Amino acid sequence: MGMTLTTLLSRARARVRLAPDDLLRDRVYRRLWTSILISSLGGQVTMLALPLTAAVLLHASPTQMGWLTAMEIAPFVLFSLPGGVWLDRVRKLPVYIGGETVLAFAVASVPLAWWAGWLTMGWLYAVGFFIGTVYTVAGSAAQVVLTQVVPRTRLVEAHAKNSLASSGAEVAGPGVAGALIRLLGAPVALLVDACALLGSALILRGVRVNETLAPPVAGRFWTDLKVGLRFVVHQRLLVALAVCVGALQLCHHAALVVQILFATRVLGMSEQAVGLSYVGLGIGTVGASLLGDRISRRIGPGPCMVAGFAVAGSGWAILSLAPVGPWGVAAFALMLGLFGMGAVMVFINFLALRQAVTPEPLLGRMTSTMRWLTLLPAGPGALIGGWLGEHVGLRAALGFAGGGALLLGALAWQWRTLRDVRSLPSTAPAAAPGRAAEALAEGTV
Length: 445
Known about the structure:
The chain is about 80% helix and about 0% strand. It is mainly alpha-helical. The longest helix has about 30 residues, at about 25-55. It is globular, with a radius of gyration of 22 Å.
């Protein structure tokens, strides 16, 4: 019996032992991955507590929920392009660390305002706008930092592992978040995310990367901004990615602004039940994160993304038809799981493809330009979802999102620029961007 138990334990250790070339064996990447895991755990609280604060405590209407989401997106539209030019002139890691730190204080302001009796929808709009502003710059910096830690040939694998860290948080986080919200109230629970963000920043301080910055040329700010725009416009693959992911963001945000309201007001779910249902999101993202790299290598990054559009859309479509009662609650959890699965299939390939084709000196501008382009439709999507939810019905907003994403998957499959991408493309030589930038600025490329 003892020998049998020893054998079983040895086999179990062998199964979880990392491969010799696994990215998590790299100390720098492991530290980055740990920071993402901790930050994601705290983020699960904010993802539930902020809209629940608006919906339950402040009795927000669907239109107000749409405006709350739109305020979080507005900074991407306003600041992404100039932020990208600035990022290419500074070191990215300190920006990433600073972003995690100031986000902690922004999130903590909500419970402080609640205790002081100042909390209103206007306060939440301001916090949402501030959070979006930090994400605009620090979030782009975080994506560039990954390319400084991981070889470009392993970007899909790295994004899949990062997604796995987020997915693990999505499995454990919602249940914890629901319990915290029930025990402390939604505003106070946000303090947990503030502490997690500070912990993430402390871990990131131990990351070391080598980054060589080209000295900025005086008076070239707007020229550099146009170089980033023109680089994206002249890359057919980047254009296809921006159009398709932008359309998905429109559908996603149309559903996002009403799904909490649908759960609490149509299905009659409690805050804790909503939190527990979000475990479905974690299960979907964990499954796709574990298999995403393998699926992408088997069918190609392009087809994997197209499949992701359809998977996400099917979840919203199913929920729009769900009956009230236990089956409706199950449909809500299923929707979250399908969205998580589809989103991972889309974004691990989307991020890897756009980074693979971009020379290093243009990574900041490309990242900010692509985030700007893909999030431009998100604000209108949130407002459309809010308007449909208030004037037609919450089911109509979910049906709009689901039908739109399924149509997107069908149309994207017809776009050969995306469908025919079966492997990561190679980038231009690192020395080329300087001359290419001059040509792009003059409009000769």
